[in-house]
Specification:
Elements lengths: L5 H9 L8 E4 L6 E5 L4 H13 L3 E5 L12 H8 L17 H4 L8 E4 L4 E3 L2 H11 L12 H12 L3 H6 L10 H6 L3 H14 L5 H21 L2 H21 L14 H15 L4 H4 L10 H11 L2 H8 L11 H7 L25 H8 L6 H21 L3 H16 L7 H8 L2 H9 L37 E10 L9 E6 L19 E5 L5 E7 L4 E2 L5 H8 L5 E2 L2 E7 L6 E7 L18 E2 L2 E3 L14 E10 L4
Parallel strand pairs: 2-3, 6-16, 13-14
Antiparallel strand pairs: 1-3, 2-4, 4-5, 6-9, 7-8, 7-12, 10-11, 12-13, 15-16
Helix pairs in contact: 1-3, 2-5, 2-12, 2-15, 6-12, 9-10, 9-18
The chain binds benzoic acid and fe (iii) ion.
Length: 640
């Protein structure tokens, strides 16, 4: 596709931005600037204050960057913003700041400025502020050449302040933030990631956009980790306190503004920063009287009052519609008579998303219908299911016959799922879904024994045995001895743990499928002794095929896959205070080890079963002679 012109890109980005309260012209005269910003964002505060200070007319798109709107994640907005990226490296991680200098280029944030006269798209608040000051004649010069270096230093300090971290995260020793943040911020990063995934799904076929979404998703995942880390949050707060302390000492000589007598760009930056800190409940950084800072900083306090009183700042930040007060700055809003300035969020009327549906807006239309889900988990699940299903169809472009066949195949799979035969479970197993669910639920620490799939042959309440018992139930085979211990990750024995074991016979059959067998065999429940030990004898298991006479068999044959599970003994261990361990020990050397149809094999679970003469049980009793011997210690992960 040919590169689209800027006007076309802007028109595409503006198409969904139809709310007249948030998309409007400001000031009079030719609108050279078009700005995408957000009522509440500090970087947007800076640019709006510069525009007000310079008296420049502009087109305002106050886009919602919080749930549920997230208009900044719309592919057309991201595509427009990418045009201003200038090949810069995409954002890599997260340090709780918002400057593009420290964070890299974030393709999904505000502000973005279009200068229609130069044809530029500018994507960093600092560059935008400097650009407007440089080319707009009105108002006073905000970066006079004589103060250039000093102003630069101040801007860099404000830019490097971790405002974002203290907005999203709670201080581990007491959350000082406004009540509305305490209530709404937990889970915000998950929601962002979900919305980004939605934007990503809508961008299939556009590799640059996909890369942009992927980078942003990585950043938000890192952010989630950052704000959940007590150390990182403590460090961010401490850093802010020392930035304010240093500001106090720079203001000692009682000058009006930070770089002397003139109000400059540096003051705009500080106005925004100090107001945000106050709004967040961090006014104690200069007011003192708080367990995190007891020292008053009178020069910063007086400077803040001067900054907050500046008409351009009041117009662009305090009076700006949709920039709600917190309990910590109510006084400034009361003064302006604007305490309730937040407009009610707009909600879609039922059916508003159901009109004029075509290929390019179908997924979005379906997703819109799910926004009303009252249970956030249900919304997340339905949203992801819809996105992936649509993406799947887009990718394979099935014919109608194929789609009908697929539905008929799934119907047969359901019909086969009755009683002990659960074809859907088997489908989950052979597609790796069971293994994946197992993995996301059992991320045990290093050193702990790895989990694996449970399988269909586990039986609740299998017979209890004393250590040393033979559990073969008289089924013929080569004798096997298992000698094990159950330990914690420090190597201490866990006594009285409950251990369930079950396995196939030397033909690969499980007891519950053996015709004519009365009762259970090749399974049992043990308790570990005071040294964490358990032991038993049985017969050596054999590899076996999973059921192949149903729809899953059709699937496996269609891809010429093996249906044989390598030989193994299943073990499940339960002990109070520890995560349940469900695993299996595979017989080293089994020829099917590398093609397990249910993806349960992990190297750490492949162990030697060695045929040895003269073996003894741990209590000294003789074992069958010779016997296949397996010695293995299970290590359990403690619950926190
Ligand atoms: C099993 O090892 O018992 C098993 C696991 C998944 C599917 C079929 C069998
Ligand atoms: Fe098995």
């Amino acid at each position: 596709m040919a590169e689209r012109g800027l006007a076309e890109r802007v028109a595409a980005a503006n198409a969904p931005l139809t709310d007249p309260d948030r998309n409007r012209s400001i000031g009079s005269g030719a609108q050279r600037f078009e700005l995408y910003h957000f009522a509440l964002s500090v970087c947007s505060h800076k640019v709006r204050t510069v525009l007000a200070e310079k008296n420049a007319p502009w087109i305002s798109h106050d886009i919602g960057i919080l749930p549920p709107l997230m208009e900044n994640y719309h592919p057309d907005y991201v595509r427009l913003r990418m045009q201003g990226g200038g090949g810069r490296e995409l954002v890599g991680g997260y340090t709780g700041r918002s400057s593009t200098t420290t964070e890299g280029f974030d393709p999904c944030v505000v502000p973005t400025l279009i200068d229609h006269e130069t044809g530029q798209v500018i994507v960093d608040s600092r560059a935008i502020c400097e650009h407007i000051d440089r080319i707009w004649e009105g108002g006073s010069e905000l970066i006079p050449a004589r103060l250039h270096r000093e102003i630069d230093t101040e801007i860099a300090i404000v830019d490097g302040t971790p405002h974002v971290a203290v907005l999203y995260g709670a201080h581990p020793d007491g959350d000082f933030r406004p009540k509305m943040l305490q209530a709404n911020m937990p889970g915000a990063h998950d929601f962002k990631i979900m919305k980004l995934m939605e934007g990503r799904s809508l961008s299939v076929g556009h590799p640059r956009l996909i890369a942009a979404y992927d980078a942003k998703i990585r950043k938000e995942a890192a952010a989630r980790h950052f704000v959940a880390s007590p150390d990182m949050m403590r460090q961010a707060t401490t850093e802010i306190l020392s930035i304010v302390e240093a500001l106090e000492s720079r203001l000692q000589d009682n000058r009006d503004w930070i770089c002397g007598d003139a109000y400059t760009m540096a003051d705009i930056q500080w106005a925004v920063s100090l107001f945000r800190l106050k709004w967040l409940g961090m006014g104690f950084a200069w007011q003192g009287g708080h367990k995190l800072n007891d020292i008053e900083r009178p020069h910063v306090a007086a400077y803040a009052l001067r900054l907050f009183d500046r008409p351009s700042f009041r117009e662009a930040v305090i009076h700006w519609p949709g920039n709600p007060p917190s309990e910590f700055v109510a006084e400034y809003y009361e003064k302006a008579g604007l305490s309730d300035s937040e407009p009610a969020p707009k909600t879609l009327k039922p059916g508003e998303h159901g009109r004029d549906i075509r290929e390019e807006n179908l997924t979005r239309a379906v997703l819109e219908t799910m926004k009303g889900a009252r249970n956030p988990r249900a919304q997340k699940v339905l949203n992801a299911f819809t996105r992936h299903l649509h993406e799947f169809i887009e990718e394979i472009e099935p014919s109608e016959e194929e789609w009908e066949w697929a539905i008929e195949w799934l119907t047969r799979t359901g019909q086969l799922s009755v009683g002990g035969r659960q074809e859907f479970v088997l489908l989950s197993d052979v597609t790796g879904a069971t293994a994946r669910v197992d993995m996301v639920n059992h991320r045990f620490p290093d050193g702990a024994t790895e989990n694996s799939v449970l399988g269909p042959f586990f039986v609740e309440n299998s017979p209890a045995f004393q250590n040393g018992a033979d559990i073969s139930g008289g089924i013929k085979g080569e004798p096997m001895l298992m000698r094990s211990r159950v330990l914690d990750t420090q190597g201490n024995p866990i006594a009285n743990a409950r251990v369930d074991v079950w396995h196939s016979d030397d033909d690969g059959a499980y007891d519950i499928l053996m015709p004519g067998l009365d009762g259970l065999a090749l399974r049992g429940m043990f308790r570990t002794d005071n040294d964490g030990r358990f032991w038993f004898t049985s017969i050596k298991p054999h590899s076996y095929p999973i059921p192949e006479d149903g729809t899953v068999g059709e699937l496996l044959r269609a891809s010429s896959r093996s249906i044989i599970r390598p030989a193994h003994v299943h073990v499940r261990v339960d002990a109070p205070g520890y995560h349940r361990l469900t695993t299996m020990l595979f017989v080293e050397g089994d020829e099917f080890m590398d093609s397990d149809p249910v993806f349960g094999v992990k190297n750490s679970l492949v162990v030697p079963y060695e045929k040895k003469p003269g073996q003894r049980m741990p209590d000294g009793a003789p074992a069958p002679d010779p016997c296949w011997t397996v010695d293995y210690d299970f290590v359990m992960a403690r619950k926190h």
